Structure formats: structure tokens, C-alpha cells
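2024-03-11 09:14:02 DEBUG pipeline.ingest accepted 1 chain
2024-03-11 09:14:02 DEBUG pipeline.ingest length=377
2024-03-11 09:14:03 DEBUG pipeline.predict start
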Amino acid sequence: MLIRYGTSPTGKRVAIARIYTKDDHRIDKSLIDKDAVKITAKLTASGYDAYIVGGAVRDLLLNKKPKDFDISTNAVPGKIKKMFWNARIIGRRFRLVHMYYPNKLIEVSTFRSESKDNNNNVYGQIEDDVKRRDYTINALYYDPQKEYIIDFIDGWKDIQHRKIRSLIPLSTTFTEDPVRMIRALKYSGTTGFTLTFTLSRSIRKYAAELKRCPPSRMTEEVMKILATGYSAQIFKLLLKYNLLGFMLPEINSLLSRKGHNEHTTSFIKDLILIDNDVKTKNENRKGRLIAALVSSFISFPEEYENTTFLFREIFKDIKRLIQPITPPNQEVEMAVVKLFRDEGIQPPKNAIRRKKTTREVIHSRKHNEKNRHQRRR
């Protein structure tokens, strides 16, 4: 282990980080995405600092192959875009760069300032950036070229002790971003790590803050959980900490009713099945994930008028069950198709609404605009 030094406000030389070498961490480099390594290498060769960060470093230390690789650097978005042909700048509040590859995307962010200025595009140094991370286990920086892990906040020790600790003060972290509560339980469910006592208590205290989350963010978090391969364990924790009632109130109500334990048993069983598919078959079709989420609450009648009418009714039932999350209707329809087939029922023809082509969308807009113009006349 090495020590990184800095200068205190009084000008004194002080230790600011621990640096763990490959002899310390023994990360298996075959688990690292080759394109992520190439991005950091090119940035480094151009005179910038560049690191793999976040959950990828945590998973590598647990000898798990990460699903996603994020990169952090002191290069600003405009410079990054000029260096990579497949780079696109996104975001308004804080600009990020997305690198597009076949079947994957790698996100590159510039070190953020610790400043609380309303202008979120304020860049800083790595020492500032680490303080903007949510949990210590996600705040390690890995240099693939030197094979160093830089640790400013004892994240290494927390991973060794299998502990989840908030990096942001608990008095403000969940009021700033309530979704951090969901992420803490997701990290616990996927790693088996335990929450610190104070973190656990704060999640229970601030659970109602989730009411402020827009449906789009909640939708994103629920779908991410279903795609982890550990959704059964995560949903158990969401029930335990009373967060599910703010995420999926209808499903939570059905699971929480007295004398309806068969719902919970069936619900967890369905999630275990989809988790196995995610792990063994790399299942990521959203329709399949949604079907697993609602399967234990959907009942097919013994008699029905026709499959088209039944399809519409099941579709409505799913939409009601998963409120307030709003996945695309086409994905919900795919979930209905999966449930039909599980019941041995042939879905009606043209059950899935085809996505419009760009030409059809443009034509539709022109047609609507023409009709509005005529009505005005």
C-alpha cells in the first residue's frame, strides 16, 4: 500500500488517500471491459487523469464481472468529444459524455466540484469529486494502467468489512435525493453487505421522502432492480424497510394484507425464477421482467369473450398494479404476451403495437398540424 499526500490549509504535508497496488487488490483484469481500458488509456496518453469508478470497482474487488463501467476524468466534456468519434454529450444540469458501442454504453464524467452552486457544470479535482459520491463502497478510483486503487474515504475497509456506509451526511442525503435509499438496499441485496445502524435508522426515518420522486425515476429504479439478478432479495429489503409502499403501492398493499401470505410466497418465487434467468441467460427483456413482477397478482378467468378483450383487460390490470411507474406500453404488452403463453393461451394477432417509423411520426405530426390549422380557420 502507498500513501498519497496533499497540503493542508496551513501548508502542512498531510496524507489524503491510500493507494492499493495490484499486490493488495489482486483484481482479475480479464473481468474489465476492454473498451473501458482503451478509453482511460487514451485519456491518460493525452495528459489527463482517468479512472474506472463506482460500482464497477466494488464488483471487481468482489471478483464479480461488472455489468456497467463508468469512467471519471479531469478532461472536460468538449475535449472528450473531440477525442472519440463515438462520443455524445448529454445532460443539462451536469454534462456527461456517453460512449456508444455495439450492445453497450460507457459513461464518462468530469470530476465534479464540491461546490453547491446552482450551476451543476462546475468541475473540480478528484479530491472534490469523491465527496459527491453516495456511499463509500462506490467511491474508489481504479487506474487500469498503473493498476492502482485510490481510496480517500476508507471505502476499501468498508468493502473488506462488508459494510454500507453513507458518504454524505445522513441529515441531508435523503432529502437531497430520496432514491439513494433504494440504492442502499439494492447494494445490500446484490452484495450481501449490511447497512450501518445509523444508515438503517435514517432510511426508516426518511422513507416518505420517496413521495417526491417523479414516476420516470421510479420506473428506472424498479427496472434496474429487476435486471440485477438479485431482485428477490432486494424486494424483501424494500418490504422490510417500508419503501415498497412508496414505489409500488398497489403491490405493497397486496403483499401486506393479513392472511395473504401466499401472495408474498408466490411473488418471491417468481422473482427468484427471473433472477436465475438474468444470471444464467442474461435475460434483460423488459416485458419478461415486468411479467415476473406482476405474475402472482394476475388471475385469468376460466371463461372469457375472446382473447382480444382478455388481452386488454390483463393490460389494464398490469398498468393498475405497477402505478406510478410508467414503462412503455409496448413493454407492458410484451408482459401480457408472456403471461398468456404461460397460461397456454395464444395471444391475439397484432397484440403488440408496432413502433412507428421516423417517416410515419413526421407524417403524423404534419397531419395533426394541418387539422389544427383547419380548425382555427
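2024-03-11 09:14:41 DEBUG pipeline.report The radius of gyration is 24 Å.
2024-03-11 09:14:41 DEBUG pipeline.predict end
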